[in-house]
Amino acid sequence: MSVTTCRTMKAGFTFAFALCCLALAGVHGDSFTVLQAPEFVSFQKGEWPVSGEKVPDVVALTMGFSIQEDLLWPGLQAGPLFQRPRANVLVVVRGVDSLAFPQTVASYPLENPVPFTLDSVAETVHSLFSEYTPVVLQLAPSEERLYMLGKANAVFEDLPVTLQQIRARLSQDGSVLTSLPLNSLSRNSEADLLFLSEVQVLHDITALLQRHRHLAKDFSPDLYSLELSGLEELSRLYGKDSPQYRDATAILASVLQKFGEDMYRLYGNRAVVEVVTVKTFEAPLTRKSRSILESKQISNPGSPYNLAYKYNFQYAVIFNIVLWLMIALALAVIVIAYNLWNMDPGYDSIIYRMTNQKIRMD
């Protein structure tokens, strides 16, 4: 074998190895996964990447809301106008690029993982459905960050907020410690308890909704935004090759799968459940937290004069009813006027017909 042939084969192997590395990097990158979605919300299966800053726009479009800029992403197709999901649940998992879910609707690579919030979507929900008091829940247990609005103030007031409350919840009845296979996880480690406390919050949310099923059957759509960082703490403490991290990853994938199925069922198979997995955000996210008692109802947060809203969700229905009723009445008036104008009193009117017969008899 000549030297030139050996060099050619070596270059070919190097190029093939580089392609394999690139392929593996694409497969194991951050992801945006749709766990549950109704049939009328059409997510197309493919490898189209979605930017982290566009995730709120995707959530808004799935709920039927308009966005400021067009979303040039083929993963989500336009759905029917009069069918919208009753809830959207977004779970952000930090510290892992992907989770092995048993069943999903679609999964897409996540590029440019910058911090994002659903504040714009929450404001849209509250502005359009303020009179129906929708449920808006944004929660990050690790940062003790909480934002509740609407009926969430009354339903989730018993939900543990601080880490101390959540850890105390782990020792009460109905704790996930009695049902989860902890394996290498310890009840005495702070990082392990942080991860388990986030799992407990997911369990408590579905338990509270099962006790208040009327929330999932009302007219207004609900919004849930949860951020979990327990895996990130476990990876820092034990490393990503540790048995604790592997066990926690398997537990979280199973818990999120069941959480998505429970939320989907509670909302009558009309809920969208998404999971964003990201190793780390490119910039830290800071938000001002709010307590349950600090959240208050306001009629119109966008107007300092307490004016009525310019748009209501029932506007399209009322407009169509009034429009077609006016058209029908206008056509009826035209037809009646035309017939009266061309009517012959001697033959078409019974009054003149009887008068003519009486005159003849006289």
UniProtKB/TrEMBL annotation:
Membrane-spanning parts: 315-341
Gene Ontology BP terms: apical protein localization; intrahepatic bile duct development; positive regulation of Wnt signaling pathway
Localization annotation: Cell projection, Dendritic spine membrane; Cytoplasmic vesicle, Autophagosome membrane; Cytoplasmic vesicle, Clathrin-coated vesicle membrane; Cytoplasmic vesicle, Secretory vesicle, Synaptic vesicle membrane
One GO cellular component term noted in the UniProt record for this chain: dendritic spine membrane
Keywords for this protein: Cell membrane, Cleavage on pair of basic residues, Endoplasmic reticulum, Membrane, Receptor, Signal, Transmembrane, Transmembrane helix
Family annotation (InterPro entries): Renin_r_C, Renin_rcpt, RENR_N
Signal peptide: 1-29
Superkingdom of the organism of origin: Eukaryota
Domain Renin receptor N-terminal: start-end pairs: 30-279
Subunit organization: Interacts with renin. Accessory component of the multisubunit proton-transporting vacuolar (V)-ATPase protein pump. Interacts (via N-terminus) with ATP6AP1 (via N-terminus). Interacts with ATP6V0D1; ATP6V0D1 is a V-ATPase complex subunit and the interaction promotes V-ATPase complex assembly. Interacts with TMEM9; TMEM9 is a V-ATPase assembly regulator and the interaction induces the interaction with ATP6V0D1. Interacts with VMA21 (via N-terminus); VMA21 is a V-ATPase accessory component.
Record protein name field: Renin receptor
